[in-house]
Write a sequence for this structure.
């Protein structure tokens, strides 16, 4: 980065450190990215959105795991987003029409007749129409620069698709699939003697009775309510003990009584689909998507590395999520922070 840009970035940092009275700071800078800055307020806002999104999708340990990962990547992801926006603006990409079409489509999907309807709906979520439009524009700009610099360079020919299919048959092989019915006797519902008597009675009636009717009459909950419908399972999805017992059954055959973790099962193979390799024509589009995704990930990674290599990036607050998240006074000494690219 040239001296002029270094000076401009430093001036941006100083300008943002505006003090009120005895050392109170208006805003704190987390990172400088070329001629732009990322503030602590922006990081906090992104952090809040991240939490709300995760809570709508995950709970418990999985939430904590994903939260810890995304929290650690948040500032770096914001830097990446800012670099993409800068690249899009440098190329003078114009996405105003796409933004308008997207907003019109959104209004139509939600039966809104005017911008005022959308504005009122956004106000209910604590957002202005202008802010919403800006965010949408930035998302479309990032997509546009990625398409221009990455997606448009991906070319896949038929020979590659055919070769990928030949080399990865396991990815396109459907496993065996079992549709099962069962009579179920719970360990908790009866004593061992009672269970043995019930098993004998069911086995004797099995020759003449309809299996579903037998399951409905003799099974314990919940199998009696479902009339013995155990469900459909791909190989590997069923309890190991049950799968070992039913894997050799043909359609219409019934297993011996199986002792599982929670009770006894008498299982009938209602339908059975054998494992098969899907044909090339069936999976051609899927193969193309897989190759495209792999190539896109590699090209995007290379493009982002180049963007970062030629950019001026300073992280002034490596840990914006310290115990004290309140805005703190800072000074020009912050310019001595970690330098990614001198």
């Amino acid at each position: 980065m040239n001296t002029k840009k270094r000076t401009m970035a430093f001036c941006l940092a100083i300008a943002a450190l505006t003090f009120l009275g005895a050392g109170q700071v208006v805003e704190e800078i987390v990172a400088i990215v070329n001629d732009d800055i990322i503030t602590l307020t922006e990081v906090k806002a992104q952090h809040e959105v991240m939490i709300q999104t995760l809570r709508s999708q995950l709970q418990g340990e999985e939430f904590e795991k994903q939260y810890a990962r995304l929290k650690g990547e948040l500032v770096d992801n914001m830097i990446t987003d800012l670099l993409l926006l800068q690249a899009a603006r440098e190329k003078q990409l114009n996405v105003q029409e796409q933004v308008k079409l997207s907003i019109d489509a959104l209004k139509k999907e939600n039966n809104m007749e005017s911008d005022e309807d959308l504005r009122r709906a956004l106000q209910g979520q604590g957002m202005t129409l202008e802010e919403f439009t800006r965010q949408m524009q930035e998302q479309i700009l990032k997509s546009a620069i990625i398409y221009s610099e990455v997606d448009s360079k991906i070319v896949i020919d038929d020979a590659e698709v055919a070769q990928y299919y030949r080399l990865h048959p396991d990815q396109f092989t459907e496993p065996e699939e079992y549709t099962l019915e069962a009579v179920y006797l719970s360990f908790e519902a009866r004593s061992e003697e009672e269970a043995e008597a019930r098993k004998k009675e069911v086995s004797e009636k099995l020759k003449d009775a309809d299996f579903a009717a037998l399951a409905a009459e003799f099974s314990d909950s919940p199998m009696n309510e479902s009339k013995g419908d155990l469900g459909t399972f791909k190989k590997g999805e069923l309890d190991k003990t049950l799968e070992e017992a039913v894997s050799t059954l043909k359609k219409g055959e019934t297993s011996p009584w199986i002792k599982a973790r929670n009770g006894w099962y008498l299982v009938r193979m209602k339908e059975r689909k054998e494992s098969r390799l899907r044909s090339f024509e069936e999976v051609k589009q899927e193969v193309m998507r897989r190759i495209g995704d792999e190539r896109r990930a590699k090209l995007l990674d290379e493009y982002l590395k180049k963007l970062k290599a030629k950019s001026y990036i300073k992280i002034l607050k490596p840990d914006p999520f310290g115990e004290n998240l309140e805005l703190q006074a800072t000074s020009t000494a912050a310019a001595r922070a970690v330098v990614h690219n001198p």
In short: The first strand starts at residue 19 and ends at 20. Residues 122 and 132 are 8 Å apart (CA to CA).
